[in-house]
Request: fold
Amino acid sequence: MDAPKTREELIARADALAGRTVGQVATRLGLEVPPDLRHHKGWVGHVIEKALGAPAGSAAGPDFPGLRVELKTIPVDASAVPRESTWVCWAPLDGSMAAAWRESLAYSKLAAVLWVPIVGDGPPGDRFIGSAVAWSPDADEERALREDWEEITELIRDGRIDLLNASLGTALQLRPKGANSRDVVRFLGPDGEWAETGPRGFYLRRSFTTEVLNKAFG
Reply:
């Protein structure tokens, strides 16, 4: 499927998926439906991306670069409460982070988001696609995101990796993102020496996305 040409077209495609199961959509696209997600992490998101026409290879920016819109599938319960925190992007620990929030990859990923709720926790093919939500952070939400990003990136710039933990941030947090203990990246320590640590990624807290969906669904 070609990429949508407008945000309105993207939203219309998402609306057309609401109420279907992920398995129904996957079968229509010719995709195999796995029995579980243990060895198929990211499968649900891949199905929705393909159904909406997301172009491949857009990891360095929003999923729909021409529209500057990021797609986020978000697992929720029957009351539309998110089940987990939401991945945003990798956090560079080598000193190559942006100088300001609005120049950062995290901002480009969160400036405009199409949330697609995925309802249920049973077999992935049986989970339902909920009503999509087109969202951009309001002034208060962006302030919270920016302040968290600035606090975290200041520690990274100072080489204080030892102080980085998931308790930092009220909206945006930093968490380990390595595939295993052998997955490491280099960083500059406080004295300018190179050292190794596990990779980290930015995530939205579940409490933050819960409020986003609450505002959307009333």
Q: What stands out?
A: The helical segments are 7-17, 22-28, 43-52, 105-110, 139-157, 206-217. The chain has one domain: 7-217. The first strand starts at residue 70 and ends at 76. Residues 7-217 form a domain with the ECO RV Endonuclease; Chain A fold (CATH 3.40.600.10).
